[in-house]
Each structure stands twice: as C-alpha cells, then as structure tokens.
Design brief:
This protein has 75 residues and is mainly beta. The protein has one helix and four strands. β1 and β2 form a beta hairpin.
C-alpha cells in the first residue's frame, strides 16, 4: 500500500509469524507511547493528523489491523 504520509509521520512494515502489517509512527522514538487503533472500514492513516498534533514528548503509534490498510487478511 503506497499512501502518501503527512510530514512528521513515518511508516514501517513489521512481520511476525502470524501477520505482516504497516505501522505508522510520529514523534520521538523515546517519547511516551500513545497507541491508536482504528475502527471498521478504516486504517492507521485515519490517525495521522492526530498523531502529529500530539504534545512534545509523546510518540504516536498506529497500525493497520488485520484485513485493513496494508495488513494481511490471513496467514
């Protein structure tokens, strides 16, 4: 899935034995983690504007859940 990202958001593909998915990150790597989970018929992209609006010191993390965005449907 090649969706343009907002400035300040970076994407990483993470694979496990059960799932490969796209994870979005915003903010400092050592920031306090804030996990964003999207609802039905959406993807991690839904949270980009909120992630870049987090106060300094926070790290936004949003993943594509199974079957949505760039996540596998089944493995």
């Amino acid at each position: 899935m090649d969706v343009p990202l907002l400035d300040g958001v970076r994407s990483e593909t993470i694979a496990t034995e059960r799932l490969t998915t796209r994870v979005l990150f915003a903010g400092p790597d050592d920031g306090e983690a804030v996990l964003f989970l999207h609802g039905n018929a959406s993807s991690a992209t839904w949270w980009e504007e909120t992630m870049i609006a987090l106060p300094a010191g926070f790290r936004g993390i949003a993943l594509d859940q199974r079957g949505f965005g760039a996540a596998d449907i089944d493995k």
